[in-house]
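Subject: Re: docking follow-up (adenosine-5'-triphosphate)

Dear J.,

Thanks for your patience while I sorted out the input files. As discussed at Tuesday's group meeting, I've set up the holo structure prediction with adenosine-5'-triphosphate included as the bound ligand rather than trying to dock it afterwards. The sequence and the ligand SMILES I used are pasted below, so you can double-check that they match what you have on your end before we go further.
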Amino acid sequence: MSQPLIEVSGLAMRYPTGRMALTDASLTVNAGELVVILGANGCGKSTLLRCVAGMLQPTAGRVTVAGSPISNLTGQRLADARMALGMVFQNANLVKRRSVIANVMAGTLGRHRNWKTALGLLPHSERPFAERCLDEVGLLGFADQRAGTLSGGQAQRCSVARALAQRPLALLADEPVAALDPEAAEGLMSLLKRLAHEDGLGILCVLHQPDLARRHADRILGMKDGRVLFDEKPSDVQEVAVSALYAKAPLETLPA
Ligand SMILES: Nc1ncnc2c1ncn2[C@@H]1O[C@H](COP(=O)(O)OP(=O)(O)OP(=O)(O)O)[C@@H](O)[C@H]1O
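The structure tokens for the complex came back this morning:
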């Protein structure tokens, strides 16, 4: 099998407060695969995603993205490597007073570093590509509408289009359906699955909904107390293993 798109090995993260948020976490994400992380509040999911994105420097361990060792890079080389990773967050974070297409074109800015983009001007040569990204998420008809007029589900799709405009190899999604109703959540997960299966993106997605994970993920990773406890196909994940992720552990058993 070819090299994984994202490879995390032996990741540990101790915050300056002393909190050990990750302890020896390892995982892989292949191109064309949607991998979902499940785990209780505070188990280290966001910390893991932020280390993969190069937003946090882990205390130990290694993250490679398309063969580049993200965890060892700094400055411009880190910025270049991060272009391979599109981010989707709980909130769409659109500029509401700007058009939908302008928000998507903002995703191309990292690929155009010049005085115009430094002044916040959008590269209009990218409009056709931004339209393709909008089409991909089913919002082409909304291109010239103000982003503030989109529904929550549409806004989150627009944020996916903005991430795609970066031309990433992988998407990191941190609770992307947290603010969506069940139908919009189902639609967004179907979209992520299609982007993985049809467009070959590797997608690492944090969810708090085991049912959604079972319906859409290619693999489910269960995290607890900063560790990956299981990494299995949805059909192999036992209900009891999922329940154990959310069982409260006495404080003294948590890592220091
Ligand atoms: N900047 C920080 N400084 C100190 N401790 C932090 C920081 N960020 C997170 N933590 C702690 O690290 C642990 C893991 O946090 P993290 O946000 O990664 O968990 P999570 O699984 O994403 O939680 P949630 O599901 O609530 O988003 C928690 O105990 C949290 O309080």
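A couple of observations from a first look. The chain has a mean pLDDT of 92. The first helix runs from residue 45 to 52.

Let me know if you'd like me to rerun anything.

Best regards,
T.
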